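To: structure desk
From: M.T.
Subject: fold request, one chain
Message: Could you run this one when you get a chance? Sequence is below, nothing fancy, just the single chain.
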Amino acid sequence: MTKQPGLDGRHRDEDGEIRRKNGNTQVGTLRDTYGKNFAPGYSDDTKLEDLLKKEDKSSLSDYLKNKK
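Reply: Done. Structure tokens follow.
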């Protein structure tokens, strides 16, 4: 059972930790949440883990903070 929404509309697990996006999540799926301009230059089928590696970021939150 999850608690109230946390950062970026995600929910916290029972231990209070915010669930992380899976590295297999595709950029196209993330564009549904973050807008069509999310990760410009990357195809819809690029995996989050590959995007983060190429951008030298440790997490989706880290990527988003540096793109604002």
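Reply (cont.): The chain has a mean pLDDT of 80. Let me know if you need anything else for the meeting.
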